[in-house]
Amino acid sequence: MKFVFKSALVVAMALSTGGVALAAEGGKTKLPAWQMQGDELEIAMNLKGDAKNGRDVYEVCAACHMPEGWGLPDGTFPQLAGQHRSVLIKQLADIRAQNRDNPTMYPFALPSQIGGAQAVADVVEYMASLPMSPENGVGPGTDLALGQQLYKDNCVRCHGENGEGKNDEFMPLIQGQHYEYIKRQFREIRDGARRNANPDMVKQVKGFSDRDLSAVSDYASRLKPPADRLGPPGWHNPDFD
Predict the structure, then answer these.
(1) Domains of the chain and any CATH numbers
(2) Is 181 in contact with 78 (CB distance < 8 Å)?
(3) Quick one: 54 exposed, middle or buried, by C-beta within 10 A (0-12, 13-18, 19+)?
(4) What does the pLDDT look like over 88-114, one tens digit per residue?
(5) Which residues are CB-neighbours of 196 under 8 A, at least 6 positions away?
(6) What count of other Cβ atoms lies within 10 Å of the Cβ of residue 176?
(7) Which of 4, 143, 149, 194 sits most deeply, having the most CB atoms within 10 A of its CB?
């Protein structure tokens, strides 16, 4: 199937810093109050995504995150491929509800552009199914001992030993993510620029120095997804041939 890219669409979807477990009520997902952004997040979380339709919706996202969903190694755009479904829905719903500031992406994430809650569930289903990049951008590797210790002391409880995250608690998968993107998000969370960040994480990183942020981001960028989740080097998404 051929896709025609929509030029001038700059989409900067990003990863969640969530960390509150989902609770079931009446067979549906019930979200904690700070997670709620109107009704759309809860609605989308309870819809079954259609990856085939999601592939069509993803045409908008591919302009920046690339057809493979791998983003850019320089961290301008994050890797979305393979990310947890809950994390992707949360961030897209937050941007649409203006709970996360992204003025470049916002006009193109609106329902008038990509559709409503079902379209959100569909495109997330598609992105989560994509193989991940085997060659994400990593840091300079000059302060890895510090980064490893900081990660062990501050990040493992939520993001896991290998950065695998937790879908049922909105904990993003950070393995395979680009160094510069991780570092930018750490800085924005620490400095209060990420309005939708989990308050617990804000407290966790508020005392980090710039050196700490660089070191732990470098270490985290070197955590690799399992081999069966990786695409081969140079893989091109056949959906865009």
Answers:
(1) 23-131 (1.10.760.10), 144-227 (1.10.760.10)
(2) yes
(3) buried
(4) 999 999 888 888 888 888 888 889 889
(5) 16, 17, 90, 91, 94, 99, 100
(6) 24
(7) 194
